[in-house]
Write a structure and sequence with these properties.
Pfam families: Glyco_hydro_64 (PF16483). By secondary structure, this protein is an alpha+beta fold. It has 2 domains: 329 residues, Thaumatin, CATH 2.60.110; 107 residues, Metal Transport, Frataxin, Chain A (2-Layer Sandwich), CATH 3.30.920.50. Strands 4, 5, 6, 8, 10, 13, 14 and 24 form an 8-stranded antiparallel beta sheet that branches. The longest helix has 16 residues. The N terminus is likely disordered.
Length: 439
């Protein structure tokens, strides 16, 4: 992988007369440095007192996984995590059995899993077969150029949680490892497997499912996508002075490890992008004081008309309105006016993704933007400000598939969406390609 020089970027920025944000350098720590959030943990569905155990392959149906190494490294490892049918945390061992971490009643601080759970795959150009012995929910297949560290922690309520590597925390014990994952759930209804860049882009991965619905693929980002994306983000930082280039994370040698989303960057630096969307949102809310914005809910609610009154977007049949969102609200689509509450009705649940998608893609002020969604992908990200992370990520996806913000699948009826999700009711093989699509 090409090396990105922070020193060179900073020197060039000084020469042209302004300070350019540079990539974040990671400094991996120990268990004491873990910042535990809901994004980096998976918790058992219920509290149990069962000791560590290996599960029999006869308990449920198996899933065959084929891992093809298209990455020029001979130290690639696979890890599989999830919940079994009893709601317990399980991790796959190289022998093909599930390992259930023990429940140490004193483990109120994270304890590292020392059981052998790294599954090495073959060298460049080879294929390695892995079998999941039973159904698994909330599953992840992790692929790493090196070794990852997993921990367990016991809550005061007795619920055991698996603390997973964080893509965002620069002090995470696995911070200097290049890794990625695909998410999957298998059950009697089949397999659902997902490729997403909503949180970050790491080691390039692609997925293919073979089954009764034929062959489905999501190719993922290209082989050299990380360096290309960081180059493009750096160019955007030069253009508008925003910290796009700081979305890139590098090691001490300048090797690019991953690119995090603006939402996660704001979680690290809360004031970042503070005023980025302010003028655009203000203009949009002003425009729709005198113009009707219509949403096609693509549900039984049909077309819903909205206008701004007293600074709040109000929509017919919606149980509540939408105040002007901040940058964090827009990039994440789940905070501020875009947070969905249990009491929200179906109209509200349909408007949130469509309004947030329109802002991320900067289509509200375009000709035809008063109907959402209606414009095709050629109109997305065509004016500033816009979500340049999403725009640039899609430029380096081999087939345009893979979410880059939470509602990236919002499209007009009949149009292709950017989802990296595959489903088959009777899967026979899941293939994961490591290192970018095969040429």
């Amino acid at each position: 992988m090409r090396i990105f020089s922070s020193l060179v970027a900073a020197t060039i920025a000084a020469l042209i007369g302004h300070t350019l944000a540079v990539p974040i350098i990671v400094h991996p720590g120990s268990a004491n440095n873990l910042v535990i959030t809901s994004h980096d943990t998976i918790s058992e569905a219920k509290s149990t007192s069962k000791p560590a155990a290996a599960h029999s392959a006869a308990e449920s149906e198996e899933l065959s996984i084929s891992v093809y190494n298209n990455f020029n490294s001979d130290r690639v490892n696979v890890y599989v995590t999830g919940l079994d049918s009893n709601g317990e945390i399980v991790l796959l061992t190289p022998g093909g059995n599930w390992y259930t971490p023990p429940r140490n009643s004193e483990a109120t601080v994270p304890e590292q899993i020392t059981e052998g759970i790294a599954i090495p795959i073959g060298a460049y150009g080879t294929t390695t077969s892995i079998t999941l012995p039973t159904y698994v929910s909330s599953g992840r297949v992790w692929v790493a150029d090196g070794e990852l560290s997993f921990f367990t922690v016991l809550a005061a309520t007795g619920v055991l949680s698996l603390v997973e590597p964080s893509a965002v925390d620069p002090y995470d014990p696995s911070a200097d490892v290049n890794w990625g994952f695909v998410e999957l759930t298998t059950d009697s209804r089949g397999i659902t497997v997902n490729l997403s860049y909503v949180d970050f882009i790491g080691l390039p991965l692609g997925i293919e499912v073979q089954g009764s619905d034929g062959t489905q693929t999501a190719l993922g980002v290209t082989t050299n996508a990380l360096s290309s994306i960081c180059d493009a983000l750096t160019a955007q930082s030069y253009s508008d002075g925003r910290p796009w280039s700081e979305l890139c994370m590098i090691d001490n040698s300048g090797n690019i490890l991953r690119v995090i989303s603006p939402y996660n960057y704001i979680n690290l630096f809360p004031t970042a992008f503070d005023s980025y969307w302010m003028d655009y949102v203000s203009q949009s809310w002003s425009m729709y004081e005198t113009t009707t914005l219509t949403f096609d809910t693509q549900t039984s609610a049909g077309l819903v008309d909205c206008t701004v009154q007293d600074g709040v977007f109000n929509c017919a049949g919606d149980n509540r309105g939408y105040s002007q969102p901040a940058a964090r609200d827009i990039f994440g689509c789940n905070d501020g006016p875009f947070a969905i509450e249990a009491t929200d009705n179906d109209v509200h649940r349909a408007i949130v993704p469509r309004l947030c998608a329109a802002i991320n893609r900067s289509t509200l002020l375009l000709s035809g933007g008063n109907m959402q969604p209606s414009l095709d992908a050629s109109c997305y990200y065509t004016i500033s400000p816009t979500n340049y992370y999403t725009k640039i990520v899609h430029q380096y996806e081999a087939d345009g598939k893979g979410y880059a913000f939470p509602y990236d699948d919002v499209t007009p009826d009949g149009a292709p969406n950017a989802s990296g999700l595959l489903y088959d009711p009777n899967p026979t093989l899941l293939t994961i390609t490591v290192g970018g699509p095969m040429s």
